Amino acid sequence: KPIADKNNLSLLPEIHAEYGSYLHDEVANKGFQIYDFFLPGLMIHTIEKRNSNALITWAKEIINKGYKTVNMLGCHDGIPVLDLKGKLIDNNYNKGLLEDDEIEYIMNVVLERGGMVKNLYNAEGKKISYYQVNATFYSALGEDDRKLLLARAIQIFMPGIPQIWYLDLFAGKNDYNAANKPGSGGHKEINRTTLTMKDVEEGLKKDIVRNQIELIRIRNTSQAFNGTVTIYKTPKHEIDIKWTNNNSVAHLKANLETLAFMVSHSNDGISKTLCF
Questions:
Q1: Cα 9 to the chain's mean position, in Å?
Q2: Cβ(154)–Cβ(50) under 8 Å?
């Protein structure tokens, strides 16, 4: 870190560990930004279970502890699940963001939709834990445009800096031909499809792509996201998040049961509301 500071560089540690180990807290307390590896699994749980409680608990921890996060949904690797677990430390069990059966549910949903799995093994070769599931986020959500768009909206309104994986932006599906090629890391190719310019041009005609870009444009241009965030108390099937910065406001209200949501934003007296 001293070398980075000397050269005006920011470090973003990529560390996977169980939530219950509190390693994310330790890293953040040393002044680092942290990757929000909790969000992808929480997002699937939130949308599939129509329950925002666990996700909101994590969002409020980010706010209350002042974490500087970079969040994501899909990425070049898999969807983290180990990160959500609790951990036994010195005979004390620190709870995870989700219970083990809830994590197992996420795993099973993604696997049933064609995802692949990477496990962790001990020195004797015994499986000790699931590590990650490999799938595009779109396929993990059942290739449902409404679910992907809602997931993107929630990500954009979460505390932190959104990181967008190119293939998920274009609603990419699991690439089994690439994943089944020889090699120990072949399963990761399921979410690394190379897009041609024709693929991009065709994708830009699709509502799911254009609507995501519109949400990203709001996130990139609204001054509200440089201000403060408020998460309102709602029933578990709803989400209500507002960002405010002087006269700039960005507001998300979502219904997890219907997958419908509304984004309203205003800058310099100009207001706009989008309903999806």
A1: 25
A2: no
